[in-house]
Specification:
By secondary structure, the chain is of the alpha+beta class. The protein has 44 helices and 26 strands. Helix content is 53%, strand content 12%. The relative contact order is 0.10. The N terminus and C terminus are likely disordered. It is found in: Cell membrane; Membrane; Synapse.
């Protein structure tokens, strides 16, 4: 099914539908066109065509209460008629396409051309070949067989090019495959709650069929289209389809349309599923995207990868927004989407964004400035520098060789240029050209993109085992640089298993669960009803799965704690709920971050109303004017009583780290009926029933994980909606704050007061005064969290720019997760909205998994540095040997094919070996690198140059006096096509041996002594080193002419290995030299303040940069293309949102994320602002700090 195109899939569904339409009371086409109506139009249409939603249920043979019977044949039939809830993915690239892409590499193309010319010339025997007068440089007479073998070099180069291409293509292909596996895993993990045969069950999203009754609740991402049939206070964020950021209130009689891909922001309810898969609103957009994307690619092969997808998406979306989709004829709109030009789509967009023209400019700017992750920025820069150096070297090599030859032949020996000699000369020139290209090939580290992708892909795979599901590849590496983590409290630092441990009922403060007999019966009845009715009916406490385990808590954890309290009082909540089913609730005010409370109104038998309320104690108590006494009678509750209660009951509970919840109620007369929409009047004059203290114990592994973070130089801050005393108590238990330290604990209000000026605008300087000491932010709203994260990221207050990770689980954490450098969403407790905005999903909701992510991130960074250290040593040596050899002896001691072999083994295998080093705990003992630390540190530079000196010294010794040492013929100044000499074979072999042993040295980059430490923990490394060694033996002994090798004796082999072993000894010598003495060593690959290149320069260097970028990004593009695929719809659309989320969408759409933009926005060098900040008084008086 996966390889069907969307349109085939669609037409197949059409055919099915026309044949089966009669079995149900409505066809797929009817339902589909119904779902395209909005608001009142839809209500009118339902009334006219069907009567009401119940009637549609009957036609679809389902019950609004019991749901579908759930029998297999029935479900199958529904899938056949109405389609499956699954959108066929875009076809993956075939292996041949990937081979073709790999062939686009510039250096490979140059090599191919050189090899083909060389081949052509070797088969062309001109009449002048025998002419002695042609070229003296040809030297000794060749025998016939040798001349015949001239083609071998060209063929060997072509063969090695084919190897390189196949390896690259295979890598890309396996990456794409891995990515698809990851994607399907993400899809399988998404489950949804439906009612089948009267039972509430969770099924995978793909199993949902038309006619299912689904339960929707706060934080869900709707998986299919449907009609709202019952529920309360349901508000939906439809911006992902309409671009309108206002939340839409749904009700059965005004707007019952629920659309796939939209987010539930508040409330709960039930919906009847009416369209799934390609027929749902999201599916229709995807179908258009599929069509539009292919069209774009055909039109413009050179378009930037991201641009094509986003244009297609925008055009599809634009046509959707304009309402062209209303005709329900997808084929027509597909062609509209195709015709609509990318540019037109671009212009349409800003209208939807709040910032108008400004947004348009920003979008255009982002076209040629793709944001890069920190690592990629550094790598691109390095690759461009190396590429330039390589080009210069190879050009000089070719020029010197050509000049030397022409001067020697035509000037010194005064030979005339005879026409019959031309082919011979051309052959020489081709040989020189090949040597030049070889120098270039060795100079450019092609293995770099490979090393990056391998180490990232490897890490991502392994991180799965550590409960980190990585959604954006580069998040993995950014995490290694994190300097701050802003964590949620509930569920991340704590177990999210709420239990009531203290209660204040009937004027008594119980320190443990009270005895049921000590509570007045009236109070007890009110308490049980208030808790059972005024909570989501989806929240339940189920018996434990295993003997002796704790009962399972399903649904909202705070409510579970309260229901558990009812059970602890030896009462039961089920009978109360069955007496007052959800359909009978008169009105529900659901919990949201503004109200911080939840209330439910019911109609009593005598027609009057009663409202039960529960919520944060300080908020609900303010609205109470009475409280139940010991006899169960209400007594007056004055403000001063309230203050006393706060002091005597609530603060002591909070200081024990308990969350305090107040339960209250209020009675209303039957007439006149209150105005339920006037919330302020309704939620007032309550009577307090009780206040409970709910404990959410700290996860046992958290304090240790936080200690590791602090040791690794990462500051952990807690951002929570809880009371400040509770938050402080938990923070001390976790070890986020230690008594007696100078830190800040603020409430959201106070935080806002301190960071805003008189006009109420947020000022960065004010944030800079607060964040370095802030450890706990309590009673914070989602905007506070976003403000804090943005403030820390934008801050230039410290010399190291901050890299911030954020954890979140609620829908309201979306903006902060998007803004952060790395967003972690909770896999179990997290809502779909949070997961959508995140970069990494913690599958076990555990803070200690974040520490694992830091470890892996640092490991990726180190692996790439290890590879660079190794690779650059090879490059420096090979380039200098080829260059000086060519200039002095007119022939590179390392032949083109040998160089390619060195490049292949050194690049591909070394990147595999060094990139798969497992992380160790020691990685957590150093400080984070931060944004502006160079990729190649001084120590690494010392190692690279030190080893290069050793290798060059030995190779030149062998080159010029080697024949005397080994008593063999000299290989220098050999004629064209002469047989391979033992002399040059020894040089080649020694070179490879030195690289092999240096690969072991490269395992350590911080100047450690023991390079063998943990080597057996990495079987891949050992296998590769031994494997390379074995292949080298084969090449030298049996490689013959193609590899320009002649077999060596055992003693010669021993010498080669001995010189190689010297590398390890020399490594120890280098480690002894203190780096601090070597001030002259430059660091390379540093991200400077202004990362973005002005446009004029951009146009000049565009060729080189493109080449380096393409080198680097070939691998990543596939990953990102795939990742974009999962997200395209959400993002395309987020682009229409305003402000922060608009940038968020751009940020995700550009194939890589980074903060280079933030870096560019710095107005002044960080040192200046630092000194200014220091001169202003930053620290608070200790007393204030303690109170805050």
């Amino acid at each position: 099914m996966g390889d069907m195109t969307n349109s085939d899939f669609y037409s197949k569904n059409q055919r099915n539908e026309s044949s089966h339409g009669g079995e149900f009371g409505c066809t797929m086409e009817e339902l589909r066109s119904l779902m395209e109506l909005r608001g009142t139009e839809a209500v009118v249409k339902i009334k006219e065509t069907y009567g009401d939603t119940e009637a549609i249920c009957r036609r679809l043979k389902t019950s609004p209460v019991e749901g579908l019977p759930g029998t297999a044949p029935d479900l199958e039939k529904r899938k056949q008629i109405f389609g499956q809830n699954f959108i066929p993915p875009k076809k993956p690239k075939t292996f041949l396409q990937l081979v073709w892409e790999a062939l686009q590499d510039v250096t490979l193309i140059i090599l191919e051309i050189a090899a083909i010319i060389s081949l052509g010339l070797s088969f062309y025997h001109p009449p002048g070949e025998g002419n002695e007068g042609c070229a003296t440089a040809q030297g000794g007479a060749e025998d016939e067989g040798e001349a015949e073998a001239g083609w071998i070099e060209g063929a060997a180069i072509l063969l090695s090019v084919i190897c390189v291409v196949l390896v690259t293509a295979f890598n890309d292909w396996s990456k794409e495959k891995q990515f698809r596996g990851l994607q399907s895993r993400i899809e399988q993990e998404q489950k949804f709650t439906v009612v089948r045969a009267g039972q509430v069950v969770q099924i995978p999203v793909a199993e949902i069929v038309v006619g299912d009754i689904a339960q929707v609740k706060y934080g869900d991402l709707l998986p299919a289209d449907g009609l709202f049939i019952q529920g309360n206070d349901l508000k939906i964020d439809e911006s992902s389809l309409t671009g309108e950021s206002d939340q839409v209130r749904k009700s059965v009689d005004k707007d019952p349309m629920l659309l796939s891909g939209t987010h539930v922001m508040e409330g709960s309810g039930r919906m009847l599923v009416t369209a799934v898969g390609v027929n749902s609103q999201t599916g229709i957009i995807f179908t258009l995207l599929g069509a539009g994307g292919e069209e774009e690619e055909k039109k413009d092969k050179k378009a930037a990868d991201g641009a094509a997808a986003s244009n297609a998406a925008d055009s599809a979306n634009a046509s959707l927004v304009n309402g062209k989709m209303q005709d329900g004829n997808v084929d027509a709109s597909q062609s509209k989407a195709k015709q609509q030009d990318g540019a037109a789509a671009m212009e349409m967009q800003p209208l939807k964004s709040a910032e108008g023209g400004d947004a348009d400019d920003r979008k255009k700017a982002s076209m040629h400035k793709k944001e890069k992750s920190v690592l990629q920025g550094k790598l691109t820069k390095l690759a461009v520098q190396i590429g330039k150096a390589g080009l210069v070297m190879s050009a000089i090599t070719v020029i010197i060789l050509v000049l030397y030859f022409t001067v020697d032949t035509f000037v010194v020996n005064k030979k005339p240029w005879l026409p019959e000699c031309t082919p011979v000369y051309v052959q020489y020139f081709v040989k020189f050209f090949i040597i030049g290209v070889t120098v270039l090939v060795v100079a450019v580290p092609e293995g770099l993109p490979l090393a990056v992708t391998i180490s990232l892909a490897y890490s991502v795979k392994k991180m799965m085992k550590d409960n980190n599901l990585v959604r954006h590849l580069d998040a993995c590496e950014t995490m290694g640089n994190a300097t701050a983590i802003c964590s949620d409290k509930t569920g991340t630092l704590t177990t999210n298993r709420m239990t009531v441990v203290q209660a204040y009922v009937g004027d008594v403060h119980y320190k443990e669960i009270p005895d049921p007999s000590s509570i007045n019966t009236k109070t007890m009845e009110l308490l049980i009803n208030a808790i059972a009715i005024n909570s989501a009916y989806t929240t339940k406490i189920l018996p434990p799965e295993k003997e002796g385990a704790l009962p399972r808590q399903v649904g909202n954890k705070t409510e579970c704690g309260l229901l558990g309290f009812v059970l602890d009082l030896k009462q039961d909540y089920e009978p109360v709920r069955s007496q007052m089913p959800e359909e009978k609730l008169y009105k529900v005010y659901t919990f949201n971050s503004v109200r911080k409370s939840m209330s439910t109104v019911i109609k009593l038998p005598d027609e009057s109303f009663r409202m039960y309320s529960k919520g944060a104690s300080e908020i609900v108590l303010k609205k109470c004017c009475k409280i139940l006494n010991g006899a169960g009678e209400p007594r007056v509750f004055r403000p001063r009583d309230r203050d006393e209660m706060v002091k005597k009951v609530i603060e002591p509970m909070a200081c024990d780290g308990l969350r305090t919840i107040c339960v209250a109620y209020r009675d209303f007369p039957s007439s006149p009926e209150p105005d339920w929409d006037n919330e302020n009047d309704i939620l007032n004059e309550l009577t307090c029933i009780c206040v409970v203290g709910i404990e959410d114990p700290v996860r046992p592994e958290v304090p240790e994980a936080i200690r590791k973070c602090q040791r690794a130089g990462i500051t952990v801050r807690m951002v929570t909606g809880d009371n400040i005393n509770t938050a402080r108590a938990i923070a001390i238990k976790c070890g986020i704050i230690h008594p007696g330290e100078d830190f800040l604990c603020l409430e959201g209000k106070e935080f806002n007061r301190r960071i805003r000026n008189e006009k109420g605008e947020i000022e960065q300087e004010r944030i800079d005064k607060i964040w370095p000491k802030l450890r706990v932010l309590a009673r914070s709203s989602p905007t506070d969290k976003h403000t804090l994260v943005k403030g820390i990221i934008d801050s230039t207050h410290t010399e190291q720019r901050q890299v911030v990770a954020v954890t979140g689980d609620g829908t309201n954490d979306g903006p902060a997760l998007k803004k952060a450098d790395v967003g972690f969403a909770m896999g179990i407790a997290g809502t779909d909205v949070a997961k959508e905005a995140s970069d990494i999903i913690l599958t076990d909701d555990n803070f200690s998994s974040i520490v694992k992510a830091v470890m892996w991130g640092r490991n990726v960074y180190d692996s790439i540095s290890k590879f660079l250290q190794f690779q650059l040593t090879v490059n420096v040596v090979a380039v200098i040997v080829a260059f000086t050899g060519a200039c002095i002896t007119q022939d590179s001691p390392l032949k083109a094919v040998q160089m390619l072999w060195v490049n292949l083994i050194m690049d591909t295998f070394a990147s595999l070996a060094l990139a798969t080093e497992p992380p160790t705990e020691t990685l957590l003992l150093r400080k984070p690198y931060g944004r502006n630390k160079p990729l190649i540190s001084r120590t690494m530079m010392k190692n690279i140059l030190g080893h290069a000196v050793y290798q060059l010294a030995l190779i030149f010794t062998l080159l010029f006096v080697g024949e005397k040492m080994f008593q063999i013929d000299s290989g220098r100044n050999a004629p064209l096509h002469s047989p391979p000499s033992e002399h040059y074979t020894i040089i080649f072999n020694t070179f490879v041996m030195m690289q092999l042993f240096n690969e072991i040295n490269a395992r350590k980059i911080h100047g450690e002594r023991n390079v063998f430490d943990g080597i057996f923990r990495n079987p891949i490394f050992c296998t590769i080193v031994l494997g390379t060694f074995a292949i080298q033996i084969v090449i030298v002994q049996f490689g013959g002419k193609p590899f320009s090798c002649s077999p060596l004796q055992l003693d010669q082999w021993m010498w080669c290995i001995f010189i190689g072993l010297g590398e390890l000894v020399w490594g120890q010598v280098i480690a002894t030299i203190p780096t601090s003495r070597l001030k002259f060593l430059k660091e390379a690959g540093r991200l400077t303040q202004k990362e973005e290149i002005p446009e004029e320069e951009l146009n000049e260097d565009v060729e080189e940069i493109d080449h380096a970028e393409r080198e680097l990004r070939r691998g990543q593009i596939l990953w990102f293309r795939g990742l974009n695929r999962i997200q395209t719809q959400i993002e395309v659309v987020n682009t229409f949102k305003s402000g922060a989320s608009f940038q968020g969408a751009l940020r995700r759409q550009s194939s890589v994320t980074s903060q280079s933009q933030d870096v560019a926005n710095l107005s002044s060098p960080s040192r200046v602002s630092l000194s200014n900040a220091l001169s202003s008084p930053t620290s608070l008086p200790p007393a204030a700090a303690g109170q805050g």
